[in-house]
């Protein structure tokens, strides 16, 4: 079924509104390149919008009422926000779930070394990437260093105009005969993705590795941290630079981390506009989706279940049975990106079931790989309900699958929350260059997702 371009329906006023919304998102994407930076931003925005922390509500033994706004921050890497609805929590929630981690390169715990007069950082890539895309481009360092005295030092260097940048070198083409004969997966070896950080030795140094010593001295002077402190650090190597308008018409945005912050941002904005919804509205933003949803800050953790239990307790109505009912009766859009049709690579997608730029929010009945393995395969009745909501609210939407049947596939957080028995469907935004350092999205799709998320949260 052919879907029309959303752009064809917009008047000048609507286009200006879309561009204004997209500019705010572009600024968010520029400033939030790690899951920690995302959570800090969402907490700040939540508090400005009248949300209070779950801990504060528990301390005050706040009796929840319709319209109350509660947020939860766990480990500074997992975030949830709730707007309490008119119906009881037992009746379920309308949940927008997304992830805020993105493919990247992490520093190892013992990263510093010197080789042939160059100071280097040893790394381990995170998530599914084409390694050859991450070399020869300017990179920034973002993250935290936790010291033994309990202090945590924030690191962000490479994105301000006055900052230095870093990078991973590649072999010059003149000497790359053997390299060019390798398969793409082997062109760049994971253990060779080491970041170059300096070449000037420490003056009058007695150390054998004088260049490394100079870098460590600079770091200690600037941040008051020593080499051993990196044993308890989380430093991410990410593309340096701002998200940018893309195309002569500025109809697209190029940036790092669209997957999946392009869904997280409109999810939170939509939630923040809820006042007294019929059903409790939720925005849930998790970490570690790109490495299989494992770990304490991931979708598989019990943080969400525990948060709902605490809300039931604040409602004066907690029991294990009511908690199970609240989760089972909920409905969710697992807000994750989809592969957009790329005219340069048309053969990997089946065109009738592909996502296209400018045609709106994308729903995936299933993801998984090949025979729908590791997939949440949404039932037809829930899809029919979602279609009704979108059409009644004049939201442009489309349906797609992630590539041809034997071509590949992927996973989301959908199947994890489906374990509770809740209705779940994947619904997000099409992306070109997915998992590359610089991904591309359409501003029209971003705005239609925002409209669709609002419509979903308002549903009784």
**What would CATH call the class of the largest domain?**
Alpha Beta
Span between N and C termini? Answer: 29 Å
Strand content: 15-25%
What oligomeric state do the depicted chains represent? single chain
Form type: globular
User: How many strand segments?
Assistant: 23
**Class from helix and strand fractions:** alpha/beta
Number of helices: 12
- The CATH topology of the largest domain comes to Aminopeptidase
Mean pLDDT, to the nearest integer, reads: 95
Instruction: Indicate the low-confidence ranges by residue numbers.
Output: none
Structural Rg? 23 Å
> In total, how many domains does the architecture comprise?
2
CATH superfamily of the largest domain: Zn peptidases
Helix content: 25-40%
For the largest sheet, list the strands in their spatial order.
Answer: 1-2-3-14-4-15-21-17-19
Major beta-sheet overview: 9 strands, mixed
